[in-house]
Amino acid sequence: MEGSRxxxxxxxxxxxxxxxxxxxxxGLILLIGSMYVVxxxxxxxxxxxxxxxxxxxxxxxxxxFGINLVTGTLFLFSDPxxxxxxxAFRLKMLAILLAGLNAIWFKIAVHADILSDTNADPRTLARxxxxxxxxxxxxxxxxxxxxxxxx
Amino acid sequence: MLDWxxxxxxxxxxxxxxxxxxxxxxxxxxxxxxxxxxxxxxNFRVLGFAPGVPILPLKALFRxxxxxxxxxxxxxxxxxxxxxxxxxxxxxxxIKVILLITGGILLVLLSxxxxxxxDSAQKTSQAAVKSIAALSIAVWIGVIVAGRLIAYWDFx
Lengths: 151, 156
Description:
Shape of chain B: elongated
Structural class of chain B: mainly alpha
Largest sheet of chain B: none
Distance between the termini of chain B: 18 Å
Structural class of chain A: mainly alpha
Number of helices of chain A: 7
Oligomer: heterodimer
Order of helices and strands of chain B: HHHHHHHH
Number of helices of chain B: 8
Radius of gyration of chain A: 18 Å
Helix content of chain B: over 70%
Strand content of chain B: under 5%
Helix content of chain A: over 70%
Largest interface: A-B, 33 and 35 residues
Shape of chain A: elongated
């Protein structure tokens, strides 16, 4: 991977790394900002907003995730041995995996109920899933920020 | 003044303890996600996205965004104090501060119009509110770009 032309382009062209990092931050804002809005509503904040109405923010999360999957993969390509052996990076990947499983849990256990009943109050399970989502995504930010300091 | 800031106990703690800098930096990144993330989503709604969301109850989310602002004013001040001279000389940092002030003014203007009393809300045209929202999105993204560039642009 390190010898690929893509890896050398990312590492050796002065502006590419900062540009990708900025894009990674933009993806973070879209992904986690929209998750916070959905999660806070499902945890019981701003009850006058119908639950169903905040669902359009989920595709925004997915767009942000897509941006960060691409930019993140490019970071990994540029220096795989650095990331692979990094403890913060490994924990970050684990936290993303758990956040993804948590999102699937939401889809299976909560999503259909919300679509069928517009004004249903969030059930206890939905609150827990939303709280876990906020916690996991916030952990992802912290672990990402720790990567340069744990090598 | 800058030298004095760098010599305070708080600045020394951020500079010298192994975990001081990464912890404050992580706090700054989380505050950014809370503030800019939620502000962007509110602005998306003002521009017409997710029309099923009523505007007034967004005030509760706006307050959470202000909590993110508070986190970042505190963590940002600590980061500034740790390397006051370098930040002061940094052009991306200067641009970031100007954009931050602009972003703050736009937040006040927007919140007054969308959360204010109904009569004042009616006085403001939809087009004006939407222009503020669009400008606010651009300015806050600019804050992030300038912030990221501080580390790359002649920062010693």
